[in-house]
Amino acid sequence: DTAVSQTPKYLVTQMGNDKSIKCEQNLGHDTMYWYKQDSKKFLKIMFSYNNKELIINETVPNRFSPKSPDKAHLNLHINSLELGDSAVYFCASSQDGEPDTQYFGPGTRLTVL
Amino acid sequence: DAKTTQPNSMESNEEEPVHLPCNHSTISGTDYIHWYRQLPSQGPEYVIHGLTSNVNNRMASLAIAEDRKSSTLILHRATLRDAAVYYCILRDLVFGNEKLTFGTGTRLTIIP
User: Fold this and answer.
1) SS3 content of chain A, % helix, strand, coil (to 5)
2) A101/B45 CB distance under 8 A
3) Does B34 touch chain A if contact means CB atoms closer than 8 Å?
4) Rounded to whole angstroms, what are the CA distances from A2 to A27, B58, B87, B94?
5) Looking at residue B11, what is its pLDDT?
6) Among partner residues B85, B93, B98, which is closest to A48 by beta-carbon distance?
7) How confident is the model over A59-102, as pLDDT tens digits?
């Protein structure tokens, strides 16, 4: 009964490759997010989507492209992976309303060699 | 986003209450005070939130100063499972600004 799930949990790949991380939420929420946690454990928002529409894009390189096929899914595709992309990526979701609560997935640890 | 200040780390004995402070002197009138925590190797988890009045839920209590420039997260009886990084976050929920802006948080260690 996982509320927010991500696949894969671990991803190891070579520099220059293209990879995707998938996120699904079964909470019926309207908004989904991607956060990045770097090696210093600093957690930062990357994107948010509300009902499949991009709401927040926090100066993330164009190599990162989120895609929301439907309200329950928000996938993250990364082109031409670089060493600095190594991090843990967290997906989250929330229901519209004030104030809302975000529910986070377990994270995907990406290692770029 | 208004900034919060938290101690880098705290320790507490198991089964004792824990008071985690947060300063937010530049808080605006529409900022909600949220607390999240991140257990080791897990995603952040919502703990509690409030605007002006003190709040209680099954996980914790939130005490908000009368001038709202500071708040305290209270764990009434800490267990080993409460060892985590606790984040105090201000959120002004204008549409399009639902992001959580995490600081460095307080790393709470529970001593058995």
Assistant:
1) 5, 55, 40
2) no
3) yes
4) 9, 21, 23, 29
5) 97
6) B98
7) 789 999 999 999 999 999 999 999 999 999 999 999 876 567 89
